[in-house]
Amino acid sequence: MSYPLPTRSFLLPQYLHKSLSDVGTPAIVLDRAIVRRNCAAMLDVCRSLGVGFRAHVKSHKTLELSKLQVGDSGPAHFIVSTVVEAEHLLPFAQECQAAGRACSILYGVPVPQSTIPRLLALASNLAPFTLHILTDHISHFEHFHAATKNAAIGVYIKIDTGYQRAGIKTSSPKFEALVKTVVEKSGHGFQGFYSHFGHSYGGDSEEDAANGLIEELNGLELATRAMPEGFRGKLVLTVGATPTATAAQNMLSSSSPRVGEFKEILARLGEKHVVELHAGVYPLLDLQQVATRARPQTGDAQNGFAPLSQSSIGCKVLVEVTSIYDEREKPEALISAGSLALGREPCKSYPGWGIVTGDLGNKNSELVYDERGDKTGWIVGRVSQEHGILTWEGPRAQMQPLTIGDKLLVWPNHACVAGAGFGWYLIVDSEGGGDKIVDVWVRWRGW
């Protein structure tokens, strides 16, 4: 809350109904139509599979997109990575609870002890056990419990199913003692087990994503065996990351090679527990996500899921050509966005920091760089802090000429990191023309 930004009402008069060609650069743009489709597809597949869903908000940090992630009805469960995200969700959570709608907020990594006063303040303004935390170490839990034992804050145990960022392995000699301690001291505040399969970003096929999803479910089933005798009540088993959660859409198709195994374990777990998927970047998508190839490039209308391709990326960065160097070995151009606007995370499928979309100012190019195809088009080949260098990949004779002042849209490698460089998103809607700004969504800042 200590990082003030302009309000939506202040920004709207500056941007509403303007064309992107009239906007200063760099700017970050969301296509509301694409984002809505991606959100609806995730909710639809969870309903079809009979599992819960928990929306991670750290990728976009906006109230508007948080609401799209959970839809207009049904449970509204969230994950946050910072306390400030939970603080900004508080009014909506209160609104949901006043309307009788199930709602909860989970802090998605073991919490820093210094955040406890703010967590206690949040919990005091919500129904009991609306706010949840993760733990993976007895000392961490005992410190937290001692400071919050009079607060109704729920607890999940974070399981490491291979990512090795946070979490405890079920094979750890400390695991059973951790479970026993948390269950005894938390009582009915113990919620269940959580896994984040973050290394699924390294996959490059539908099979890889399906394997990761099933591996997570097996890992949490193994975790449930450590529960003390006499425990009553259903546990929540929450699994995911965008590649594995999105791979669940493939499980609606009988052509998926592991669909039978998936449905079998899902049914087995569902008899005793509540299975929940969680994901965050899926509404926006980016080039890293497309590179996982977690589901087909083309949609499957019969089975109700969306494609995973460049066309399903809802996040773009607006840049401007500021100089041209067509005499170089590869034609190049300087643009008004570098690592602070695009991020510096690589993408395994191509050698760049962003791909220029087919919308080149007032020109329309059919030559968009396709890492699965002929690899011809403009990419962000190099980045410095505030500026980047576009490089033309492919035959020089096929180069799409650029002129100084051209406004271009670039798909970023990692939408979460690209968004962090901006205070707000400019919203367009491809179902209503696509070039005019229809809204502005202010991002939450701080920790």
Automatic annotation (TrEMBL):
Q: Which GO terms describe its molecular function?
A: D-serine ammonia-lyase activity; metal ion binding
Record's Gene3D superfamilies? Alanine racemase (3.20.20.10), D-serine dehydratase-like domain (2.40.37.20)
Top EC group = lyase
The UniProt record lists the D-serine dehydratase-like domain at: 314-429
Q: Which GO annotations describe the biological process of this protein? A: D-serine catabolic process; response to toxic substance
SUPFAM superfamilies attached to this UniProt entry: PLP-binding barrel (SSF51419)
Q: InterPro entries annotated for this entry?
A: Ala_racemase_N, D-amino_acid_metab_enzyme, D-ser_dehydrat-like_dom, D-ser_dehydrat-like_sf, PLP-binding_barrel
**Enzyme Commission code(s) on record:** 4.3.1.18
Q: Where is the signal peptide?
A: none
Please provide the record's keywords in A-Z order.
Detoxification, Lyase, Metal-binding, Pyridoxal phosphate, Zinc
Q: Which reaction does it catalyse?
A: D-serine = pyruvate + NH4(+)
Its required cofactor(s), as named, are: Zn(2+); pyridoxal 5'-phosphate
Q: What does this protein do?
A: Catalyzes the conversion of D-serine to pyruvate and ammonia. May play a role in D-serine detoxification.
Tell me its family. Answer: Belongs to the DSD1 family.
How is this protein named in the record?
D-serine dehydratase
What organism does the record attribute this protein to?
A: Massariosphaeria phaeospora
